[in-house]
Amino acid sequence: MTVIIDYQAGNLTSVVRSLKALGVMGEVTQDPEVVAKARRVIFPGVGAAGKAMATLRQLGLDQALLQCFNRGIPILGICLGAQIILTHSEENDTPCLGLLPGRTLALPLKPGLKIPHMGWNKVRFLRPHAVFKGLPEAAEYYFVHSYYPAPAQAAMVLGVTEHGVEFPSAVGWRNLVATQFHPEKSGRFGLQILENFLAWDGSHAE
Amino acid sequence: MLSKRIIPCLDVRDGRTTKGIKFLNNVDVGDPVEMARLYYEAGADELVFYDITASSDRREIMIEVVRRVAAAIFIPFSVGGGIRNLDDIRAVLLAGAEKVSVNTAAVLDPALITAGALAFGSQCIVLGMDVKRVAPSPKIPSGYEMVIHGGRTPMGLDARWWAQEAVRLGAGEICLNSIDADGTQAGYELTLTRMISEAVTIPVIASGGAGTPEHLCQVLTEGRADAALIASMVHYGTYTITEIKQYLDRRGIPVRLSW
Hints:
CATH superfamily of chain A: Class I glutamine amidotransferase (GATase) domain
Mean pLDDT of chain B: 92
Largest interface: A-B, 39 and 34 residues
Strand order of the largest sheet of chain B: 1-3-4-5-6-9-10-11
Distance between the termini of chain B: 17 Å
CATH architecture of chain A: 3-Layer(aba) Sandwich
Mean pLDDT of chain A: 95
Helix content of chain B: 25-40%
Distance between the termini of chain A: 26 Å
CATH architecture of chain B: Alpha-Beta Barrel
Low-confidence stretches of chain A: none
Shape of chain A: globular
CATH topology of chain A: Rossmann fold
Low-confidence stretches of chain B: none
CATH class of chain A: Alpha Beta
Number of helices of chain A: 6
Radius of gyration of chain B: 17 Å
Structural class of chain A: alpha/beta
CATH class of chain B: Alpha Beta
Oligomer: heterodimer
Helix content of chain A: 25-40%
Strand order of the largest sheet of chain A: 2-1-3-4-14-13-12-9
Largest sheet of chain A: 8 strands, mixed
Number of strands of chain A: 14
Number of domains of chain A: 1
Number of domains of chain B: 1
Largest sheet of chain B: 8 strands, parallel, barrel
CATH topology of chain B: TIM Barrel
């Protein structure tokens, strides 16, 4: 069963519909017991880190996610879900889930550069990974964010994107993979990533 | 590097598009869902639906369109027109749109922007601006005035001030329509677009006046726009999105060429 975690951080409709287009009925849940039994977890989300973490803790989903990570089932974080898996977020100075060591940082304000980083951009993949296989170099993905994940270990950065700075846009370690962009809104290349994720066994491709 | 977005805009009335498109074998397509799918496959970076439904059961018809579009395409799309309150915003987003554009209602009740941003995130809330050129005055120092009700009612509100105020209130993006340029196909209002784009930190979509790929080139460079709305030039098959993007690419403008 593929579970989509609902912690009241944005609209999950597009994630659900993308899975449906791939022939998978995802189960949207706020229930930590359902998450605990999941075989595969998608952890989406948009919005502010502070409120998101408060809701996750209140619902007991922080512990459920940690258990999923420790159980070794495949987990996909998207957008905010790629940020609050780290130890800390600069947004609202928020202690986060700490599944991976690292910090979520603000995109720097520069003259002529718009924040949020909104629209289509490329990802330069640095290491091979089962979830990102079969994607052409020219592919672009849909981003909308003002913060980005900065894992403590370089080996956890799978891909980078440029918007004023070069930032990690695809992150992964063990059974966890996460994208700052939205695969569910990134056309057929995004669907390819979701399809790859649904077929992934959670083992880390070296 | 962030690509400049090319965004077809579809006017929808009572669940049908008001202008059929002829870009596929010259077949008229009036179903907004089918049009959305065709533009998705043709390389649109995003879509805008503008609801001009007159009937009283308007919400239900449009929400059903949004639901069907969301199941058919996997790029972002926004819905504008007739959004009056938080319930309207919620209904459109839960039906599957990524963004909602507020225009008249935001001018009349600016708190709606903040309420929408708090409930769903700034990235969902697009400020639609209909703007008309006027003589600069103490009240309208920029020389551009906000108009509402589809361009019929001038508000005595300075467009640059309102754009900055809306950002402060929580808008995540601006869709800037020039009433003067709209429908002319003679080019975007470059002075206005540049002024607003330089006045705010959030992305600005230019709207009104597109007739040729060169017009897009101008507004994305001189006009400092982050995205360009197009309608007739693609609806009537004069240009394909591929042709427009290839033109922009040759002019050195970053666009998404692979989809």
